[in-house]
Amino acid sequence: MKKSLKFYRGTILNPKSDTRCDFIADGVLVVSGAPGRAILEDVLAWDAAQKKYAKKIRAANTFDHRGSVFLPGFFDMHFHWVQDEVRTMPKDSLLEWLERYTFPTEARFSDPVYSKTRAHEFFKHLSRVGTFGGAVFSSIHECALSAAMKEAKGDFVIGNVLMTMNSPKDLTQTEDQAIGLAEKMTRRFGKRYAFTPRFAISTSPRVMKKGAVFANRARCFQQTHLSENHEEIAFTLKLYRGFPGFEKIKSYTEIYQKVGMLGARTLMAHGIHLSDAELKMLAKTRTAIVHCPTSNAPIAERGLGSGLFDFKKTERAGVRWALGSDIGGGPVLSMFDVMQSFVKQNQRAGKTGASCIKALYRATLAGAEILGVSKRTGNFKQGKDATFVVVPVPHRAGSKGTHQSAEALLSMIFEVGAKNRDAQDDLIQRSVFRGRVMVEEHS
Ligand code: GUN
Ligand code: FE
Questions:
Q1: pLDDT tens-digit profile of 391-415?
Q2: Mean pLDDT to the nearest integer, 325-338
Q3: Counted domains in the chain
Q4: I want to staple 246 with a disulfide (CB 3.0 to 4.6 A). Which of 41, 45, 107, 240 is the partner?
């Protein structure tokens, strides 16, 4: 059968690992299949493509994006879709911020009509910034979760948060309600559902224990928050040492271990202040950490001032990790903001190794690997989904737009973003999900 092909010509950046990113200055993504199901047929230089596909390349099936760069769609491995409005509200340290801004915002999602409207807007925005995979927190409400499941376009796992204690009245479930809803949602959404105790402070050990059992049985992902802020850690330890069976715990991670939540399908947001023993526990169980640099950044930079994640120590311990925006802890939805913040904060602290190539890998393929979908997506390879974003190549005065390496080009794109953080949501000229154009130029 003859395949009809499409040729996208432009600069290609293809992340492979922390230290490798293929750079093709004049390249082509060759795409086959119907929009919505399209895959990559080939990834190669324009010169080579002209020879290989001489009979197939025509003006009508060639999309000329010279002057722009193709990147794979992003994975945002931790965000709260119900906190879109919180992004722009004032920041405070974690526990005060939750009480003052976050909980009242999430409470509004008890309304099914509001949930539907907001989900439609939010996930459209998410496609616009080129995020087509990740792990999502919803509010406690079934209607908000259903709306998100309907609107999310990409490889997402989504869960309603479970809150049975230390929470405002209108966001507190009974233990039976929490467990019952999680079981019902697992049956309804299968592996797209993520079992999501908000954090140990708000979810009772019984709920976490019971939920972990059925999440493991259903082979669903589990996600929660771990060790984000010193005050949170101290309160968590004090609280749990008062519970039977937890009197002797030495760490925050041990709580999740005791309730059976650690494992290769578990994502822990933040993990900033972990001891060596805790990192060892995470490595041994293959539990992944999601690092959210924009959320952890100082309050002056619109974060919660939680601290700087030690990626080197985490890697040395053998713990898998990927990047997330933690919207609304983080202020900007675009993963460009998350990547540039990771690079910049580490540079400023004098930490080496936080390259732009590493940031890109951790915002794309690393997320796909952790979610177990990297055979099908996460970067450019024959047979993978035709999912990508198109971004203009920034021009430095006098440089004529020539770039020698992936690192140099990425660093210029990140520089543009850092100068005007909110404008990054409009950086992408076109985003393509499995061959379907989701967003065209909006400038
Ligand atoms: N810990 C518990 N809930 C939250 C939340 O909504 N955001 C962040 N950043 N941390 C949390
Ligand atoms: Fe979070």
A1: 999 876 545 556 789 999 999 999 9
A2: 98
A3: 2
A4: 240
| Helix 112-128 and helix 142-151, axial crossing angle in degrees, nearest 10 | 30
Query: For ligand 1, is residue 329 a contact (CB within 6 Å)?
Result: yes
% the chain with pLDDT above 70: 97
Tokens at residue 137, please? 């927190």
CATH number, residue 68: 2.30.40.10
Query: Do 323 and 304 fall into the same domain?
Result: yes
pLDDT value at residue 441: 66
Instruction: Take atom 3 of ligand 1 and give the residue whose Cα is closest.
Output: 198
Task: Note whether 141 and 170 are within 8 A (CB).
Answer: no
Reported as half-sphere exposure (CB side, CA atoms, 13 A), residue 328 has a value of 23
Query: Does 372 map to a domain?
Result: no
> Per residue in 260-309, pLDDT tens?
999 999 999 999 999 999 999 999 999 999 999 999 999 999 999 999 99
What is the atom index within ligand 1 of the atom nearest the CA of 292? 9
Look up the domain containing 427 and give its range.
5-72+379-440
| Statement to judge: residues 133 and 22 lie in one domain | no
Both 103 and 250 in a single domain? yes
Ligand nearest to the CA of 101: 1
Say how far apart CA 409 and CA 402 lie, in whole Å: 9
Instruction: Looking at the CA of residue 326, tell me the nearest atom of ligand 1.
Output: 9
Last residue of a domain, one of 333, 359, 393: 333
Residues 89 and 164 in one domain: yes
Instruction: Report the C-alpha gap between 97 and 216 in whole angstroms.
Output: 32
